[in-house]
Amino acid sequence: MPRRMLEVAPNRFWVVDMGSWEPNQGRLIELRVGQVGDAGPRAQTRVLLDRLDRPFGMVGAPDGRIYVAEASRVWRLAPGAPLRPDAVIDGLPADGAHPLKEIVFGGPGRLFIGVGSATDACRDAAGRQTLPCPEMSGERPRAAVYEALLAGPRQTLHSLRPFATGLRNSLALAWLPQTRTLLQGENSIDYPDAGAPPEELNLLRDGADYGWPACVGARRPARGYADPPCARTTAPLKLWPAHAAPLHALALPTEHRSPFAGQLLVAWHGHRAAGHRVVGFPLDADGVPSGAPIEWLRERPRSRGGAFAPAGVAVAMSGALLVADDRNRRILMLVRER
C-alpha cells in the first residue's frame, strides 16, 4: 500500500508503504528509476526499513533530512547516512478510526502534524452525539492539526500544541511559502448519500475551529446535531465533491520546471464517482487555489484489479508526475510524450 514518495536524489525515490491497516506491517522502500523507454521506466526496489507501524506522511526538511510519520510517532534520518531513525515525537494517539499522521514543514523548525478524530461523527457506544465532543477536550484534543516547534543544535522538540481544531481527518496538508499559508483537505463525515456532505479545502489559522463534528461544508449542521453554533466556526476556502477523499496535497511554485508549476496538486482517493483522480488547482496572485480543477490523471475501473486510488503524488526533478495507487499496490509515472 504505497502512500508517499519523495525524490532524495535524481531518479532515486523513497516510498512509504503502509503494508496494511494492521500494526507493524509498513516499510520504507527505495525506488530507483532508469531511463524511460517504450515499455515504461525500468525500476529497481529495495527495502530500507520494515516493521513500521502504519506509516503515512513523509517530507523533506529544510536541512535535508527526511521525516517519516508512523501512527504514534515521527522520526527522521538522512538519505546518505546509516539508516538509524532518530525519534522526534512519540506518544501520538494511534487508536480509533483515523490513526494515520500527515506531516508538512512550515519553514525551518516548524512541523505541522495532522491528528485525526477517533470516530466518524463523535458517536458514543450508544450512538449518542453530544457537544462538546469528548474527543475535543483536554490539552491534546483529537481532530486537530498540531504545530511542533523544533529547536537547538539537534532540532529537538521544543513544544507541541494544537494549531487548528475541528478537523476530522487531515491527510492532505500543504504549505505555501510565498504567503506562509497552511492548507488542509478535509475528509468529511461519511454519510451514506453519494452527494453529501462536501469535502473541504481549508485555510488554517492559528486557534481557529473548523466545525467537526457538529458542522460540515459551508458551516451547515451535521446530521445528529440540533442547532449547533456553526456561525462561530471558520468557513472553508473551497468546497470539493462529496467523498472525493483528499489524501495528499502538494503545492508547486510558479518557477518549478514541470507542467504542474503554480498549482496545488491533490490526490482524490475516494471510491465513489468523485474519486479515482489526481487534480490540480491553479494558484492565483495571492497564492490561493482558484478556478476549476485540472484533471491530470484519471482511470476508470478495470475488468481486472481495483479502481485507480491515488493516495500520494510527487513531482520528480525531471518534471514527471509519480502517483501512488494504494489499492492496486503500484506507482504510476506520468511523463511527457516523446
UniProtKB/TrEMBL annotation:
* Bilayer-spanning residue ranges: 307-324
The cross-references to SUPFAM superfamilies, in alphabetical order and at most eight, read: Soluble quinoprotein glucose dehydrogenase
Q: Which domain of life is it from?
A: Bacteria
Q: Does the keyword Membrane apply?
A: yes
Domain Glucose/Sorbosone dehydrogenase, which positions? 101-267
Alphabetic keyword roster: Membrane, Transmembrane, Transmembrane helix
Using the record for this protein, list the coiled-coil segments as residue ranges, or answer none: none
Task: Report what the protein is called.
Answer: PQQ-dependent sugar dehydrogenase
The secretion signal range is: none
From what organism does this protein derive?
Piscinibacter koreensis
Q: Does the keyword Disulfide bond apply?
A: no
Classification via Pfam families: GSDH
Its lineage opens with:
Bacteria, Pseudomonadati, Pseudomonadota, Betaproteobacteria, Burkholderiales
